[in-house]
């Protein structure tokens, strides 16, 4: 793109630059998007946009260390290419130099507010729900330390994927009671509330994660309930956040919840937790199955009917692109019985195979939906998010 008078913040590529900055993407990634706005270089128009839309308005919202680092990279690149740096950029950098001490920049458990913008492609007339907005913005407080709160205070890629899935196929989740395990920062729950799930129950085993999750829900204008046993209201603006360590939660504690859909993002990584996780998933899946079967056919235990033997592939591997995904999605919507969607990066194949073995022992069917149910790419500006590494599985019992 040639240098021009102003860049439109509502249209790509400037929209992507702005969204990446609000999501606190790495400096290199912001610079590459900025270059794309200037046809390959950091022109004065691009610098003016950066100043007006990225730096001037965001100043003072707690992201100063991030902005200082980014400004340094930006100025260095412009100077090394013998370009003219806008005075405002120099002045802002100088003010950070005096106001921010270096050791604040990488403070151990420092929190940042990331604003994720899910950008819907234009011309959505072929999609399921055309009335949805073009952009869903989710502010989230997260830690810069991936391990804080037993890993639950930062955003993991599989929750980005599940969020895209929910926003791409709202009809699967709307009017459904949804229960998430290991919810972390609460992003998936915010998306579920957005598509009007009838109930949203989020859970985590770590108390500091739970406190951070509640804060995030409130930042997104959602009310929270925290008791385990009280009946959950069917109000999509109310999200239940419960302390649920997989090791100690009892079947009777879970019996109040008969979710239609169970979700989990990046929860398959610690082999010592997996037997407990699978137990919780099996209880939640069988709760409603047995209830439904009992009312339909008497008191048979559904777990006696189907045994999993490893992972079965999605039935139609040719499904590809929106229309075909929609037809698969429709078959999911119309399927009876509860279903779990687990998105995961397989970091250790032995750990994942152990999960499959445990699911098999618990009479759960696992299907690989990765190539079958593909969400829209709603985070096109987020270079740090590599969706090709994420696998999607469904778990069910019959
Ligand atoms: C890798 S993080 C993923 C968080 C979130 N789902 C995401 O994708 O961003 C794993 C989450 O599972 C939770 N978790 C780990 N072990 C758990 C256990 N035994 N019981 C309950 N929650 C657990 C952690 O507290 C953390 O929130």
From TrEMBL:
Keywords: Transferase. GO terms for molecular function: transferase activity. Residues 296-320 are annotated as: Disordered. Residues 64-94 form the FAM86 N-terminal domain. Gene3D superfamilies: Vaccinia Virus protein VP39. Pfam families: FAM86, Methyltransf_16. Residues 301-312 have a biased composition (Polar residues). Belongs to the class I-like SAM-binding methyltransferase superfamily. EEF2KMT family. This is FAM86 N-terminal domain-containing protein. The lineage of its organism: Eukaryota, Viridiplantae, Streptophyta, Embryophyta, Tracheophyta.
């Amino acid at each position: 793109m040639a240098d021009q008078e102003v860049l439109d913040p509502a249209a790509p590529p400037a929209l992507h630059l702005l969204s990446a900055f609000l999501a606190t993407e790495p400096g290199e990634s912001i610079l590459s998007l900025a270059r794309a706005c200037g046809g390959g270089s950091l022109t004065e128009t691009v610098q003016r946009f950066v100043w007006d839309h990225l730096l001037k308005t965001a100043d003072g919202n707690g992201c100063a260390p991030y902005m200082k680092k980014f400004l340094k990279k930006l100025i260095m690149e412009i100077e090394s290419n013998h370009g003219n740096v806008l005075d405002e950029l120099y002045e802002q950098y100088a003010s950070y130099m005096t106001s921010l001490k270096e050791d604040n920049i990488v403070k151990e458990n420092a929190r940042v507010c990331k604003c994720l913008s899910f950008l819907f492609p234009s011309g959505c007339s072929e999609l399921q729900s055309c009335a949805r907005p073009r952009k869903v913005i989710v502010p989230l407080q997260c830690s810069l330390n991936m391990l804080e709160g037993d890993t639950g205070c930062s955003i993991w890629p599989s929750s980005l994927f599940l969020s895209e899935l929910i926003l791409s196929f709202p009809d699967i989740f709307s009017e459904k009671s949804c229960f998430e395990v290991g919810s972390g920062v609460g992003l998936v729950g915010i998306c579920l509330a957005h598509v009007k799930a009838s109930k949203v129950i989020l859970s985590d085993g770590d108390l500091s994660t739970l406190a951070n999750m509640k804060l995030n829900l409130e930042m997104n204008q959602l009310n929270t309930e925290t008791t385990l046993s009280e009946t959950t209201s069917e109000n999509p603006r109310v999200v239940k956040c419960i302390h649920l360590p997989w090791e100690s939660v009892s079947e009777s504690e879970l019996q109040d919840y008969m979710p239609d859909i169970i979700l989990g993002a990046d929860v398959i990584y610690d082999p010592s937790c997996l037997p407990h996780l699978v137990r919780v998933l099996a209880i939640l899946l069988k709760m409603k199955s047995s209830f439904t079967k009992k009312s339909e056919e008497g008191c048979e235990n559904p777990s006696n009917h189907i045994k999993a033997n490893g992972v079965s592939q999605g039935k139609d591997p040719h499904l590809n692109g929106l229309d075909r995904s929609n037809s698969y999605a429709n078959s999911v919507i119309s399927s009876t019985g509860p279903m779990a969607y687990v998105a995961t990066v397989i970091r250790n194949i032995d750990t994942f195979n152990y999960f499959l073995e445990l699911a098999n022992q618990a009479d759960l069917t696992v299907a690989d939906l990765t190539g079958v149910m593909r969400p829209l790419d709603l985070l096109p500006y987020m270079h740090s998010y590599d969706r090709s590494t994420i696998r999607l599985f469904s778990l069910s019992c019959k």
